[in-house]
Amino acid sequence: MEISALARSILETMRARPRRLRARPWIRDLVAEVGLAPSDLVLPVFVCADDAPVEVPSMGARRYHVRELRDLSRQCSELGIPAIALFPVVASELRSEDAKYAFTDELACRAIAEIKAATRDIGVITDVAIDRYTTHGQDGIVRDGVVLNDESVEILAHMAVAHARAGADVLAPSDMLDGRVEVIRSVLDATGHPDTAILSYTAKYASVQYGPFRDAVGSTAGFTSSLGPEGKKTYFMDVRNREEALKEAMLDLDEGADLLMVKPGLAFLDVIQMLAEKTGVPIAAYQVSGEFSMIKAAASAGWCKYEDLLIETLVCLRRAGAKMIFTYGALDAAKILQARR
Ligand code: PBG
Predict the structure, then answer these.
(1) CA distances from 134 to 49, 66, 162, 216, 332 (A)
(2) Which listed CATH number (3.20.20.70, 1.10.3210.10, 3.30.1300.10, 3.40.50.2000) goes with 34-339?
(3) Ligand 1, residues 43, 210, 223: which to mutate, most atoms within 8 A of Cβ?
(4) What integer best gives the mean pLDDT of the chain?
(5) Which of 89, 105, 213, 281 is the S-S candidate for 48 at Cβ 3.0 to 4.6 Å?
């Protein structure tokens, strides 16, 4: 039989035509399984002292002076972005072996106060980790080449109370040290902050995709002289593991976490999906600095359009099961979504 005739005769009998539901934008919208709205986004903000430089050498994001936060939070509020995640950048003179700045974390506390002074509509999420305050950039106190767990968690406890006192709504421990959620929950409750929530970075991988962030907060300096990125592998998860994320999630929930984070996002969609299906708590995904930089780089090379790639990656994170997404593109995405409505 002639090939075309055969093909046609078979197709004539086909009743299933899935393309019916893709024919026009309105029907695609109607049948879409997930949506993406500004209210799904969290804006990570690098905040620095008012006299510090705001440029970041990589990644196409900038730092904000503390005094700029009022405007920025009003902007988020107008765009419908529900929360800001703060990442203070302190001067290198304030960093030390014992991370003593973390006990009070003045810059974070000032930043929280500025946002709260501008608007009560915006939630403030703080990063509870000491990598920005140690001279070597590790998320813990280092002794004899080892990142100590318990001594470091003790510092997190002080840091958490300082953030809660300053008015933070959600504390996000991001270092994967053992027992931190239990300790933070206990000290918050004991100091009269039972309503402060904990978003635990539960499956934070020892990824190579955090490089531009470390540029932005200046936490790579010591990597050359001490433990280096290898040290991070002693507390962040191995990228080869999936089941371990479930174990970490169960521990964190048991210890009192309200929300769980998977980080990075796009390369870990399977982990997001697993935790979304198995834990029953809202899962946050972090589109990290390396991912965001890749989007920017592809766009500046002319390989993909920035707006389209940003929205597509965010939609894919939502499809995998992320309830909320931390992205440096939150302001842009919110504007794009508004314009497309
Ligand atoms: C602090 C922290 C890091 C990031 C978020 N919180 C850096 C790191 O763990 O080295 C990375 C975020 C990003 O790459 O966008 N522990």
Answers:
(1) 18, 22, 18, 15, 33
(2) 3.20.20.70
(3) 210
(4) 95
(5) 89
